[in-house]
């Protein structure tokens, strides 16, 4: 991750309440490469529009530390943006605060927030990291008399992960430690509420949400990153509609086709 210092903010540069954010985004997008770089990571580029606003372009990159696979799939950036645009609007309608101010063909405009080094993950199925690291968990009965089974659904819970730089994997944090960087109580409430809103929207459309990774502000109140198949596990019956396609070595054409179908399912 490349970062530049946070630009100083002065009240005189605050945007007036009647700002046309869509036009501001269009103007910024036209001169994107001329704007000051705020940060560049594996999946996105942020540039300053004003001291309080940033323009973001997603990259057509896919990465899986589990599968040790990285690459570029042209077109996935656009699909992620269009899907996020729909799901941001859904979450805002459900009362979830987001930092997103406008979305255009190539980029989006956001309030510039200092990103926390914490991922807020909601899991409602025994898949992914827990399935791989908790060896023997399926052999032990729970204190309620049942078992945790591979790929089986369960009540959603929230996990906080420290974001390590690639190629290191992210690591689960004790609550006390995570709470030094993000309000874990509020973040848990926000993440569960957002997850339930997404489930209520996706389920009638034949899409089953198993887990998702949110990026929230340090007060735990505001979502500031994408909501797309790149940061969730979502299935249509037994068909992967998410980054598991990449993890399993599927061809780019298959990923583009199924993510395009995902977009169609959430916008029609």
Word description of this protein:
The chain has 268 residues and is of the alpha+beta class. It is built from seven helices and 16 strands. The protein has helices at 21-30, 76-93, 129-133, 175-178, 184-202, 244-247, 252-267; strands spanning 2-3, 37-40, 44-50, 53-58, 61-64, 69-72, 97-98, 100-103, 108-111, 118-125, 153-162, 171-172, 208-214, 222-223, 232-236, 239-240. Strands 1-2-3-4-9-8 form a six-stranded antiparallel beta sheet. A hairpin with an 8-residue loop joins strand 11 (153-162) and strand 12 (171-172). Helix 2 (76-93) runs parallel beside helix 7 (252-267). The protein is globular and about 60 Å long. The two termini are 36 Å apart.
Question: Layout of helices and strands, plus pairs?
Answer:
Blueprint: E1 2-3, H1 21-30, E2 37-40, E3 44-50, E4 53-58, E5 61-64, E6 69-72, H2 76-93, E7 97-98, E8 100-103, E9 108-111, E10 118-125, H3 129-133, E11 153-162, E12 171-172, H4 175-178, H5 184-202, E13 208-214, E14 222-223, E15 232-236, E16 239-240, H6 244-247, H7 252-267
Parallel strand pairs: 7-14
Antiparallel strand pairs: 1-2, 2-3, 3-4, 4-9, 5-6, 8-9, 10-11, 10-13, 11-12, 13-15, 15-16
Helix pairs in contact: 2-7
């Amino acid at each position: 991750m490349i970062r530049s210092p946070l630009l100083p903010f002065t009240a005189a540069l605050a945007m007036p309440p009647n700002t046309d954010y869509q036009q501001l985004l269009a103007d910024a997008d036209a001169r994107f490469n001329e704007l000051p770089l705020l940060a560049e990571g594996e999946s996105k580029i942020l540039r300053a529009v004003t001291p309080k606003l940033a323009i973001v372009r997603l990259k057509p990159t896919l990465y899986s530390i589990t599968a040790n696979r990285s690459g570029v799939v042209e077109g996935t950036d656009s699909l992620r943006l269009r899907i996020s645009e729909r799901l941001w609007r859904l979450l805002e309608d459900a009362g979830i605060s987001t930092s997103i101010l406008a979305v255009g063909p190539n980029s989006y405009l956001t309030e510039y927030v200092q990103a926390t080094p914490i991922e807020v993950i909601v899991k409602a199925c025994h898949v992914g990291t827990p399935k791989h690291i908790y060896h023997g968990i399926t052999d032990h009965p729970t204190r309620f008399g049942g078992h945790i089974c591979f790929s089986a659904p369960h009540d959603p819970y929230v996990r906080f992960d420290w974001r390590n730089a690639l190629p290191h994997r992210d690591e689960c944090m004790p609550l006390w430690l995570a709470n030094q960087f993000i309000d874990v109580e509020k973040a848990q409430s926000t993440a569960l509420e957002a997850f339930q809103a997404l489930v209520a929207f996706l389920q009638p459309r034949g899409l089953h949400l198993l887990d998702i990774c949110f990026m929230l502000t340090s007060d735990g109140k505001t979502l500031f990153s994408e909501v797309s198949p790149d940061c969730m596990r979502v299935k249509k019956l037994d068909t992967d509609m998410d980054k598991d396609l990449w993890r399993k070595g599927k061809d780019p054409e298959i990923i583009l086709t199924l993510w395009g179908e995902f977009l169609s399912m959430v916008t029609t």
